[in-house]
Design brief:
The complex is a heterodimer of chains A (940) and B (252). With 940 residues, chain A is of the alpha/beta class. Helices cover 23% and strands 16% of the residues of chain A. Chain B has a three-stranded mixed β-sheet with strand order 10-1-11. Chain B has a two-stranded antiparallel sheet with strand order 2-3. Chain B has a two-stranded antiparallel sheet with strand order 4-5. Classes of the chains: A alpha/beta (940), B alpha+beta (252).
């Protein structure tokens, strides 16, 4: 044996710098190993509350993102036509001057002529504050085309939703049911959770048309027909209620199930809750036989019944639920065919939920006191947990489906109880504790309040005095009244159409709207570059900020180049979308572990500069000089309320206060020293039952989540929906247009319902019968991954996956191509066989296809050749109805983009001679050239 | 020809859980990130921004299967060098560059002695070796030999990069020659298997098979009382349901 002698302890790095990942939305902690001042290696931070040391494929490949040849290098001014990608580099001073030249006149005359929309923005509490100071009503981030149904459905129902709002009790759950998930919502915590559940011998169930990823390891798979999750869930509700497998004590004490609802059809408050003089909801007391306030200490609410109070008949919420959900409409045999799940399997799943919830209930020896002042010796849990994301929310029936899912969780008493689903601070926080939308525009002055929020009835809509939409995206209008995250996907088409009005400047950040983030991609590209009769662009000015040479860059007039995530400051703030866990409040920072080697600037710092140049309130001192040096300075010194700022940790003069405290000039360094985050643990007696737990409410006030204890009931009955129905029935001063009345009455049911949202996509002759979807790969985030030399070797291709029945019916073979047609358009693409797939669904990976010239890729890149977008088949409007009206392809309640309602026709065609998918979207010039021919990455 | 050691002191290797691997490729890029930076030549990529082809020491393959009865399945299958006891890649090596370490059984390539003939890759039945096109030397999983003993790393980090990063906890590292080690006990408990045992390579790495899938039993109408007592209706009609509810509330 002649073994060479190895150095088994080579030096790993000079230094480890700890910051927060941004390779997707999951916000894991990372250890960045530095060698010679350069980034050498990235791994997970073991202490970090989100990822505990692990890291996904994207995170470990972050180094290739940081070094991507597609990084923009300097501010750019367009010199060619929009879409061509021809630019010249300019100075920051010139860039700011151009932007100021467009924005200052707008602000002085009509601030609504600015539409400022940010995409996958993790600084929304800051960007919205900027937009508010500017005075435009036209601000939102990307929630409207992502998962607003999940967020809003959860907040309106129980004061929080999945992912950023809460998580399963991974350690105690015994049955975990996953409905149609987008993998990055969230990424590592779900993988860690599934690993933990499997180790504990618990069961994972996947409800998803596609058996890949998490569904591949699910112990049981329900390959549901897309868009029918709500129907399946209501059938489970039917089975559980019928069998009495519901938690009556929980429903009675913590939900509005016993609340009395006006049941007189002639009453102006028909369908609304009976209130006392102080506005508290009333319940029927079984002991005292009278209506009483829900929070009285000795109240004993009844759950069912019809009672006359004040001469008007009232029925409890639960009585309405009995009437609705015990109906045979929701029996498994009725829903089996539509959902694609046999009745026996639906009952099997219901029986499993019932068995685990009630036969394997958990009891924790922990005393706690509820909001009525009653002390409980133990905490009881139903160890069934659930999670869902875009798969159920990106349908036109998604809001009601998300509500149905939460209703199911609540019925079995598995929300905020051991083994079930738990909120993460600052949640629980009910819709009533959130702001309402604001839209009052005053030239030269800030908007009258925050743009986005939760409406509670017609009075809260964002309408002008003449009843027309106040916002360019038509959020908070009769077409989609509860659009809590705005509707970014409607901005470009509305701005192009001048409907509801013309704008001057479209300002966007980090959203590839000329490509994978828009429906109707080819049409959107035309709208962005369309000119009027005078030869001027229909959308006069477009400013865009991105770190990379994306497709959207080519369509902007002015580019503000952003940094990579390793070169910037950020705060992952409790004012926004923090990194909390169920056991603790937590927030985090990013900081420049390396300085940019290009003439680029973190977008938020650029906004600070621009805000100061424009003299926006909050951005300048009394003498008009800039108030903040940069974004880092804002993070440390800004106070949203006295003592409450973007970061909760290390506040106060000595840096020893958490949550509340004066700004601390050394706060950023304290975060860096602590590994990039701060954490505040929730006391033991406050860990569960948070909406009703006195100890939690007190703790939340102490650290500044809110200013006074605010316990509330879960709202199975969504009164805001009912208020819109009442308006549609003719009640109240603010009335919907007549053509929307029937739709509002039908869809805005105060109890969760289901309807066939895909029916509108089937074509006049019913020729579009196959449902078509996209999924996001685990190792790729939107378009970003394509520039990543390592990740694109994992997911560089996206065939259309076809299930066995369709594969055989159309005679496909390996290497076949297909033409896929929808009511809106057609694409010609390669296909691949996939047996583990719903029998009538086809799908492909999202955002793999690229436009030639983008992302510094060479023209032979598979992404720009056979790669394609499904987006070309999806229109932002539904096909015309008989009256010629075209409704938005979105949820009629929230405006959530209904990506997954798509129906198509599939035909086998000859492979194109050039091996390139259709449509051909042309080529853009690259302002950064193309990447190198060879790579052998090593930092010495 | 290169000789294998007659005995190794330890049998360090991986145990990979096919029940839990979600196919996320975290191990693939963690491996690439560590190893392009450490042992031997960097892991190169050809045409990285065109039609790319690069060197990876660890890859995930995904399979679809349709059992005769029941639902179709997807299996994610991570694959890297299995550090075989009877490693044919070592015995075939004409220069002695491929070798198996006596102290821990790790199979390595001494890149200084490798002439890039590629015989070892042909000999490996698992396709676990990749020729680096830029360096012209054979690359393979080193089991992160420069991590697992590395005194510059905290003790808890002295494990292969793929194991440290795996979010689902589907990868385990340890001494499979010690029957009392955590990995050996895991293999015994879960019925771990050799990959392609008929090849006679006696791989050290072990795979844990997926648990049975789709076991929730169907419940047909009328079966509720017997097969699914939890679904037995409390009453036949809404009126009866209200009666049940009243009695149940009274008992609370």
């Amino acid at each position: 044996m002649n073994q060479p002698k190895l150095n088994l302890s080579p030096k790993v790095s000079d230094e480890v710098r700890k910051t927060t990942c941004y390779m997707c939305a999951c916000r894991c902690g990372i250890d960045v190993h530095m060698k010679g001042g350069k980034v050498a290696y990235i791994e997970g931070n073991r202490d970090h509350p989100v990822n505990r040391g692990v890291l996904c494929a994207k995170g470990s490949a972050g180094i290739m993102q940081h070094n991507a040849p597609s990084r923009l290098r300097a501010p750019l001014k367009r010199v060619g036509e929009r879409g061509e990608g021809k630019f010249e580099e300019i100075s920051w001073d010139e860039a700011y001057s151009i932007a100021e030249g467009w924005l200052r006149p707008i602000r002085e005359t009509d601030p609504s002529k600015l539409a400022f929309f940010t995409g996958r923005d993790q600084s929304q509490s800051f960007t919205s504050w900027w937009a508010q100071a500017f005075g435009t009503p036209n601000y939102a981030a990307h929630g409207g085309f992502c998962s607003v149904n999940m967020a809003a459905g959860g907040i309106y129902t129980m004061g929080g939703a999945f992912w950023e709002f809460g998580q399963p009790d991974w350690d105690r759950t015994k049955l975990f049911i996953l409905f149609g998930v987008a993998e990055d919502h969230d990424s590592n915590p779900i993988k860690m959770g599934i690993g933990k559940i499997k180790k504990n011998g618990a069961k994972v169930v996947g409800v998803n048309p596609i058996r890949s990823g998490y569904n591949a390891v699910a112990d049981d798979w329900f390959g549901i027909t897309p868009g029918t999750d709500g129907l399946l869930i209501l059938s489970l509700v039917h089975c559980l209620m019928k069998a009495g497998k519901i938690d009556l004590e929980y429903l009675r004490d913590f939900t509005d199930a016993p609340v009395l609802i006006d049941a007189d059809p002639n009453s102006a408050t028909h369908g609304l809750a009976l209130l006392d003089d102080d506005g508290h909801k009333l319940v029927w007391d079984r002991t005292q036989k009278r209506a009483r306030c829900f929070d009285a200490e000795d109240v004993n609410p009844d759950l069912a019944g019809v009672w006359e109070v004040g001469g008007i008949r009232h029925r409890t919420v639960f009585q309405h639920m009995i009437d609705k959900y015990l109906s045979a409409d929701y029996a498994p045999d009725t829903v089996a065919e539509r959902t694609g799940i046999p009745a026996g399997r639906i009952r099997g799943l219901a029986a499993e939920i019932a068995r685990v919830a009630f036969d394997e209930a958990i009891e924790i020896e922990q005393e706690w006191t509820d909001f009525r002042g009653r002390t409980h010796k133990t905490m009881t849990g139903r160890p069934v947990s659930m999670h869902a994301m875009r798969g159920i929310s990106a349908h036109a029936n998604g809001f009601q489906t998300c509500r149905a899912l939460h209703m199911l969780q609540i019925l079995i008493g598995s929300v905020e109880t051991p083994g079930g689903f738990r909120f993460k601070p600052p949640y629980p926080k009910p819709a009533t504790a959130h702001p309402k939308p604001h839209c009052k525009v005053t030239p030269g002055a800030p908007l009258d309040g925050p743009h986005l929020g939760f409406v509670h009835g017609p009075a809260d809509l964002a309408l002008r005095d003449d009843g027309t939409p106040a916002r360019i995206d038509k959020a908070f209008t009769w077409e989609n009244p509860m659009s809590a995250h705005g509707m970014m996907h409607m901005v470009i088409s509305n701005a192009h159409a001048g409907d509801p009005y013309r704008i001057d400047t479209l300002f966007m950040y980090m959203a590839n709207m000329a490509w994978n983030s828009s429906m109707n991609t080819s049409g959107t590209m035309k709208m962005l570059s369309d000119k009027d009769d005078n030869g001027d662009y229909v959308i006069p000015h477009i400013i865009y900020s991105d770190a990379y040479s994306s497709e959207m860059v080519a369509y902007a007039d002015l580019i503000l180049p952003d940094t990579t995530y390793l070169e910037r400051h950020d705060c992952i703030s409790l004012l926004d979308r923090p990194i909390c866990e169920a056991e603790a409040a937590a927030d985090a920072i990013r900081w420049p572990v390396v300085d940019p080697d290009r003439n680029v600037k973190g977008f938020q710092s650029a906004l600070i500069d621009l805000g100061a140049r424009l003299g926006l309130p909050g951005f300048v001192k009394d003498d008009g000089s800039p108030k903040f040096k940069d974004y880092a300075d804002y993070i440390v010194r800004h106070e949203r309320r006295p003592g409450v700022g973007p970061l909760m940790g290390y506040r106060g003069e000595n840096g020893d206060q958490t949550g509340r405290g004066a700004p601390n000039p050394t706060q950023m360094q304290a975060y860096i020293d602590n590994g990039g985050y701060a954490i505040a643990h929730i006391p033991d007696d406050a860990q569960f039952y948070k909406p009703w737990n006195k100890a939690y409410q007190d703790w939340a006030v102490e650290i500044g989540l809110f200013d006074k204890a605010s316990p509330y009931l879960f709202t199975l009955w969504c009164e805001p929906l009912r208020r819109f129905q009442l308006a549609a029935e003719g009640h109240g001063p603010r009335q919907p247009p007549d053509h929307l009345r029937e739709r509002i009455k039908a869809t805005m049911d105060p109890l969760p319902i289901w309807w066939d949202a895909a029916a509108a996509h089937g074509g006049d002759a019913g020729e579009f019968t196959v449902t078509a979807l996209t999924q996001r790969p685990m190792a790729m985030y939107h378009s970003w991954g394509t520039q990543n030399a390592w990740l694109r070797q994992i997911h560089g291709r996206n065939p259309m996956y076809v299930p066995t029945e369709l594969w055989e019916k159309h005679g496909f073979d390996e290497g076949s191509w297909a033409r896929i047609t929808s009511p809106h358009g057609e694409i010609t693409v390669p296909v691949a066989h996939m047996p583990a797939l719903n029998r009538n669904t086809i799908w492909t990976w999202n955002a793999i296809g690229k436009r030639k010239g983008a992302w510094a890729l060479h023209d032979n890149a598979p992404e720009a050749k056979e790669g394609f977008l499904l987006n070309h088949l999806i229109h932002e409007l539904l096909p015309p109805k008989q009256d010629g009206m075209r409704w938005s392809n979105s949820d009629p309640i929230t405006g959530q983009a209904a990506w997954f309602d798509l129906k198509v026709k599939i035909e086998k065609v000859a492979a194109p001679a050039d091996g390139t998918s259709r449509p051909n979207t042309g080529r853009q010039s690259s302002p950064v050239g193309t990447g190198p021919d060879k790579l052998a990455w090593e930092v010495k | 020809m290169t000789a294998l050691p007659s005995h190794t002191d330890k049998k360090l290797g991986l145990v990979i859980d096919l029940d839990t691997c979600v196919g996320c490729h975290a191990c693939v890029t963690a491996c690439k990130g560590w190893n392009t930076q450490n042992y031997g030549a960097p892991l190169s990529d050809q045409d990285p921004y065109g039609k790319p082809s690069g060197t990876f020491l660890n890859r995930i393959h995904s399979f679809q299967s349709q059992p005769e009865t029941g639902l179709a399945r997807t299996t994610h299958f991570p694959k890297s060098c299995l550090h075989c006891d009877d490693a044919p890649c070592v015995t075939v090596c004409p220069t002695g560059a491929s070798y198996k370490r006596v102290e821990d059984g790790i199979v390595l390539v001494n890149e200084d002695a490798c002439m890039g003939c590629g015989l070892c890759a042909w000999a490996c039945p698992y396709g676990a070796r990749e020729m680096d096109q830029a360096a012209g030397v054979m690359k393979k999983c080193t089991l992160c030999v420069d991590r697992i003993y590395n005194e510059n790393l905290p003790e808890e980090d002295r494990e292969p990069a793929c194991v440290r990063t795996c979010p689902a906890g589907a990868r385990h590292f340890g001494d499979l020659g010690d029957p009392t080690s955590a990995v050996s006990l895991l293999v015994a408990d879960r019925g771990g298997v050799d990959l392609m045992p008929e090849q006679g390579t006696r791989p050290v790495n072990q795979y844990l098979p997926p648990r049975p899938r789709d076991t929730i039993a169907d419940v047909m109408t009328g079966d509720e009382d017997i097969l699914a007592p939890f679904l037995a209706p409390v009453a036949e009609d809404p009126k009866g349901f209200l009666g049940w509810l009243d009695r149940a509330l009274e008992k609370l």
